[in-house]
Amino acid sequence: MDIILLERIEKLGSIGDVVTVKDGFARNFLLPQKKALRANAANKKVFEANRERLEKENAEKRAEASVAGEKVAGAQVILIRAASNAGQLYGSVNVRDMVAGLVEQGFDIDKRQVIMGAPIKTIGVHEVTVALHPEVHVTVKANVARSDDEAELQSQGVDVLAQMFEDEQREIEEQADANRIDPNLEPGEIPAELLDDTADSGEDTAEA
């Protein structure tokens, strides 16, 4: 279907552009949301008669969105969730969670403005896009953690999962040193030190 855009649509075009889209996309989204008109002769005349007003209104909305964007850009939503030791959430963080967190901080955000692509399923600091206007997109952060302390570490730039892995590796190495076992040995392989001790013991027995 050929349509006339009434606002900028990403990957499609800007106000006044005549573009071809799938019928379902036009009927289910663009037309009912008043983002476009069918590109027929009558609508083209109506659009041209109102182009100046539409462009002015869009400029005003873009300016308002830019001001709001300066306030919300960089905002961080802390979301405490249960997760495995590997950092996988028992569930997920979705658009509704982000909207609730931003509204709680005093931002006027609608779920249609939050763009996530897919739900968040791991702990960490994730970037989320907020489209305040077709031409004004800002980035906020979802700080997903298992505790407030963990969220604070992540806010400071600490990679909690990497730190956990390093701590586990250090513990394994310390335990191996304590047991005089080389952590790089293959299963069933005898440490060289033990082989030396066994050899020395055999020599002592022979001398006796």
Reading side by side through the largest sheet, how are the strands ordered? 4-9-8-6
- Give the number of DSSP strands: 9
Spans of at least 5 consecutive residues whose pLDDT stays below 50 are: none
Terminal CA distance: 101 Å
How would you describe the oligomerization state of the chains in this entry? single chain
Percentage of β-strand residues: 15-25%
Radius of gyration: 30 Å
Label this structure with key terms:
single chain, 208 residues, alpha+beta, 4-stranded mixed beta sheet, 3-stranded antiparallel beta sheet, 6 helices, 22% strand
Plain-language structure description:
With about 210 residues, the protein is an alpha+beta fold. It is about 45% helix and about 20% strand. It is built from six helices and nine strands. It has helices at about 25-30, 40-70, 95-105, 150-155, 160-180, 190-205, and strands spanning about 1-5, 20, 35-40, 75-80, 90-95, 115, 120, 125-135, 135-145. A four-stranded mixed sheet has the order 4-9-8-6, with helices on both faces. A three-stranded antiparallel sheet has the order 2-1-3, with helices on one face. A two-stranded antiparallel ribbon has the order 5-7. A hairpin with a 2-residue loop joins strand 8 and strand 9. The longest helix is centred in the N-terminal third of the chain and has 32 residues, at about 40-70. The termini are far apart. The relative contact order is 0.10.
